[in-house]
Amino acid sequence: MTELRYCFDSEYEDGRLFRVETAESGIPVNVFGQPGSDDGLEPGDACFADICGLCSDLEVYEDEDAYYASGTQFASVSMVPLGVFSAEGGGRGDSPHIMFSGKVLDAEKDADAGPDDDNFYLRVSTLEMELHLFTRFEGDIKAGSTVHGTAWIFGKIRKERAPEEEASGEEASGGEASGEETSECPEGAVFKDADYELGAEGGEVYLTARGRRYGLSCQPQEPCTYISCDGKPYAVIHNGFDPAIAVRAFASGRTVSSASGKEYGAEEFCGTIAFAAENCPDADVSYVEGALAVRRLIAMGATCPEKAVDAAALGLRRISDRFSRSKKLKERVMYTGDGKVYVRIKE
Predict the structure, then answer these.
(1) Over 90: is that where the pLDDT of 169 sits?
(2) Between vectors from CA 302 to CA 318 and to CA 160, what angle results, nearest 5°?
(3) Any long-range contacts for 108-117 (C-beta under 8 Å, 24+ apart)?
(4) Please, is 220 exposed, middle or buried when counting C-beta atoms within 10 Å of its C-beta (0-12, 13-18, 19+)?
(5) Which pLDDT belongs to residue 170?
(6) Phi and psi torsions of 20, nearest 5°
(7) Does pTM surpass 0.70?
C-alpha cells in the first residue's frame, strides 16, 4: 500500500480523478478513484491506496545493468506523471497515466489467458510507490527484473491504511497473539469432517482433502505457505499462513487471520488451502480468497445487481481488484451503488 497526500478530485469519465502527491517528495500524480474511495478528504490529508495499473508498452530487462545498457535516459527507479502534464507539454492531460521504471517484486503468469487478455500480474516497486500491474507480454518476466512502461492507474483512495496492511508478525500469518511463545504442534488431527482432516504427524502439518494428502510448511519469517503432495512441491500461497500456528490455534478453539484480515475457522482454512492447491498453484492469498469468493458468489446466485450481496457475507473486507479491473474477464466482480458485490458472467 502506498501513502499519498490528497490535493483535490474532480469528475472524470464515469468516476473521479484524484490529484494526489507522493508522501516523501510531493510528486503530483493523478489516480482514478474506484468506487468506495473515501469522501471528505481535505487538501494535505494523508491517504492510502493499493495502486493498480493497466500497463502497456512494457519493456523487460534481466536486471538494472541490462536496463542501462539499452541506452535509456530514465533512472531504473523513476516515475513521470504523464496525466498531470498537458498534451502540448508531452503529457496525457488530466488523466491517470504515468510512465515508470522499476523493479519487479512478484510476477504471476496466467497460462490460461486468452490471446487478447492480460497474461501477467506484476508487483513493481517504482519511485515512492508500489504498483500492481496487469499487462500482456509475450515472453517471461521474473522477480528481480527491471521494467519500463506506461500505465493507466487506479485504486480506492482511503483516509486510513487498509486493515490488511496493519497486520504484522504472526498475526498476519496465523493469527496468534503477538508475544506468544512458539511451541510444538499437537500430534494427531485437530479438525476432521467428511471432506477434510487437518493435523500434525511427526511434527509435520498435513491436510487430507477429499482423499488427497498434502504437506503444509513455511520458512521462518517468510510469509509463504508451501503445499506439497507425494513429497514433491505442489503449490505456494504468498503472504499465507504458518501452518503450525494455525494447527495450534485450532487445537485450542481459536481462529486465525490471513494477511487480508479475513478470519478463518478450521473448516474454512482447510477448504481454502485445498482450493489453492488445485486452482491457484502460485498466488498471493488475496488472489486465492478472491478466486474462491467468485466461485461462492456464483454458487449463491449473485450474478446480477438485484442479487448482489455484502462482501462481509463472504467473510471478506474486500475482494482483490484483480477480479474487477478488466472488462475482458469472463467472470468479473462488480459493485452496486451501495457497495454490494456480484459477478457478471460474460457469455
Answers:
(1) no
(2) 15
(3) 108/282, 108/283, 108/284, 108/287, 109/140, 109/141, 114/328, 116/328, 117/326, 117/328, 117/329
(4) exposed
(5) 37
(6) -130, 170
(7) no
